[in-house]
Design goal:
The complex is a heterodimer of chains A (220) and B (362).
Chain A: H1 17-23, E1 25-29, H2 36-42, E2 46-50, H3 56-60, E3 66-70, H4 83-94, E4 99-104, H5 113-118, E5 121-124, H6 129-143, H7 146-159, H8 164-175, H9 183-191, H10 198-219
Parallel strand pairs in A: 1-2, 1-3, 3-4, 4-5
Helix pairs in contact in A: 7-10, 8-9, 9-10
Chain B: E1 8-12, E2 15-19, H1 28-34, H2 40-47, E3 54-57, E4 63-69, E5 72-79, H3 86-95, H4 104-157, H5 163-168, H6 172-195, E6 206-209, H7 210-227, E7 230-235, E8 241-244, H8 250-261, E9 267-276, E10 279-289, H9 293-298, H10 309-312, H11 320-330, E11 333-346, E12 349-360
Parallel strand pairs in B: 7-9
Antiparallel strand pairs in B: 1-2, 1-5, 3-4, 4-5, 6-8, 9-10, 10-12, 11-12
The chains are: A alpha/beta (220), B alpha+beta (362).
Chain lengths: 220, 362
């Protein structure tokens, strides 16, 4: 199985939806109760609810696979005037790989065009769990893919001025050493050669861990 | 403003509408001299030059002027420059001079003044629109609550079933509440979209199947169709994905709802899916009031309805198909209609097989 990575070539590995569902962490941030969460949980999704932005660090480091973010009434502590839009802008600048769904009461509103343009997708508050699941499955199928995750990983490395040699070393640490029990340590060592902020390091470890999990799950 | 007899034509998108009353209160002078709006060719190149309000002379020696106010392109034609057009001034003198003469300076001044007011006006208009639309936020949230509660109930009732199947296996009354809520959502989205058509293209596009969007909407509109003894049927399937915006969901809603509204009872509405080369073609066929050749171009224009539409159905306001066209264009698609008359009438209106074709360029 792992011999395919000997040349450090990236092979596209995808997880089937039931396994994605087991692993995916979903977050709703809305200052009002979100009714569809209960149905999503009954359907077996791991969904967390915040009535405001509780930890920007968790969001930036990619603890959640999908974040449903309300545009108003949240994030005032971090973005007093721009609220949800300010949070989205911040997240996308720190970690562009974070997947954010604009969760809004309005389906079409030109004044919110910037919010929708920055978000990865949008969901109206009139939507039920059926619509949410359709969107989740589509976004997560795209996301839970070793190649897509590695591309995300690589784009963060490049933003942080990693050299081609450093990227190659990290690629080997992820794909060739993925069978080793101390693989995470090896990845951290490889990453320590690049100057990274704590939150960027956290984001990369999160993505790296996801890639390991996909490789492990497919190997089983 | 009652200052001139000259006609004014308004361009909204590719559409031209005749209007009077803003600057001019009669089209008589131009009609008398040109037999109608024959100077259209003269100003076509003019109106497509953006943000360049300027004058041009038509073959009759009259001036044509184009300018933009409140995101609308205005074209004034048949105008005379009293100071410089002596030849036409003589014609003009006989009938209109004295009360109706206007110089280009006055028109320029008018345009400048209105353009200066444009930003303030538009800002206020947007604010007012938002105030009017704001309650929709609450309506949408309430719709979401109803939909979610029915879904929870369905899931608890049939825990082993897939959620979609569980909802559509519910008791007819509950299912009807679910479907009605979805319809309220779609109708409010149409109003929402109408308030800012440019936002129909906002957001990130996702790869989606057009077939799924039609299938989902057919499910929601099924009970409305049944109440008119209509069946919605699919002929063919195609799972091609296209880059789609959120607005794609409104397209099947508008087209199918329209087919239901304008169908005569006890008929089928058939949705065809086929490929033509790499193009994806979706056709919605219904049997209902004829769409005349004259109507074909008009029904996709804002606030226009077919000649027999209001006699045939009390529903409809002339905005659905306009939005459908805007949405189709945003998705690199073209929408057209054909109407083949059948040899009978219903309540004095000729019945025809109408086919709306949406061609997605893949």
């Amino acid at each position: 199985m792992f011999s395919m990575f000997k040349s450090s070539k990236i092979v596209e590995l995808k997880l089937p939806m039931p396994l994605i569902k087991e692993r995916a962490n979903i977050l709703f941030i809305d200052n009002e109760k979100v009714e569809l969460i209960e149905t999503l949980q009954l359907e077996g999704w791991h969904v967390e609810y915040w009535d405001d932005v509780k930890s920007l660090k968790d969001l930036e480091e990619g603890k959640f696979d999908i974040i449903f973010l309300d545009i108003g009434g949240v994030g005032k502590a971090y973005a007093p005037t721009e609220e949800g839009f300010g949070i989205l802008t911040r997240l996308k600048s720190v970690n562009p790989t974070v997947c954010v769904v604009a969760y809004s009461g309005m389906s079409f509103d030109a004044s919110k065009a910037q919010f929708w343009a920055k978000a990865d997708a949008s969901l109206s508050k009139s939507a039920g769990a059926i619509d949410a699941i359709e969107l989740l499955e589509e976004l997560l199928t795209k996301k839970y893919n070793s190649k897509v995750l590695w591309d995300d990983f690589k784009s963060i490395l490049k933003i942080n001025h990693a050299t081609d040699k450093q990227i190659e070393l990290i690629q080997n640490a992820i794909f060739i050493d993925s069978k080793n029990s101390n693989k995470l340590e090896k990845l951290k060592v490889a990453l320590s050669t690049i100057s990274l902020s704590a939150s960027t390091m956290g984001s990369l470890i999160t993505i790296g861990t996801k890639i390991y999990k996909i490789i492990e799950a497919v190997a089983k | 403003m009652n200052i001139s007899p000259f006609p004014i034509r308004v361009q909204v998108g590719a559409e031209f509408q005749s209007q009077s009353g803003l600057i001019f209160d009669s089209t008589k002078y131009c009609i008398d001299n040109c037999n109608g709006f024959n100077c259209r060719k003269e100003y076509e190149d003019l109106v497509f030059v953006k943000n360049k309000p300027h004058f041009k002379e038509c073959h009759k020696g009259f001036l044509i002027c184009s300018f933009v106010i409140h995101q609308r392109q205005y074209v004034i034609h048949g105008m005379i420059d009293a100071r410089s057009k002596d030849k036409n001034k003589r014609i003009f003198d006989k009938k209109y001079i004295g009360t109706n003469t206007i110089g280009r300076e006055k028109i320029s001044k008018f345009i400048e003044t209105y353009t200066a007011l444009d930003k303030t006006y538009f800002k206020n208009m947007l604010k007012k629109t938002n105030e009017l639309i704001f309650p929709y936020h609450d309506i949408k949230r309430l719709v979401g609550t109803i939909v979610s509660n029915i879904e929870i109930y369905a899931k608890r009732t049939n825990p082993t079933m897939n959620l979609d199947t569980a909802v559509y296996s519910l008791d007819e009354k509950l299912k009807s509440i679910f479907v009605t809520s979805k319809l309220i959502d779609s109708y409010t989205s149409v109003v929402d979209a109408l308030s800012s058509p440019e936002s129909l293209k906002s957001g990130t596009s996702r790869m989606r199947r057009v077939y799924n969007a039609f299938h989902k909407m057919a499910q929601i509109l099924e009970s409305k169709a049944i109440s008119k003894k209509l069946n919605i049927k699919f002929n063919g399937s195609d799972f091609t994905e296209i880059p789609a915006y959120t607005s794609l969901d409104l397209l099947p809603f508008i087209i199918l709802d329209n087919a239901i509204k304008y169908s005569s009872e006890i008929n089928d509405i058939i949705i065809y899916f086929k490929k033509d080369g790499s193009d994806l073609i979706v056709q919605v066929e219904n049997t209902g009031c004829i769409i005349t050749d004259e109507d074909k171009g008009m029904i996709f224009k804002r606030l226009n309805r077919g000649k027999f539409s209001s006699s045939f159905s009390s529903e409809g306001s002339g905005i659905g198909l306009y939005l459908a066209k805007v949405i189709a264009e945003h998705h690199n698609a073209v929408i057209e209609v054909e109407s083949a008359p059948l040899s009978y009438q219903h309540r004095g209106i000729e019945i025809a097989v109408n086919i709306f074709t949406i061609r997605f360029k893949i």
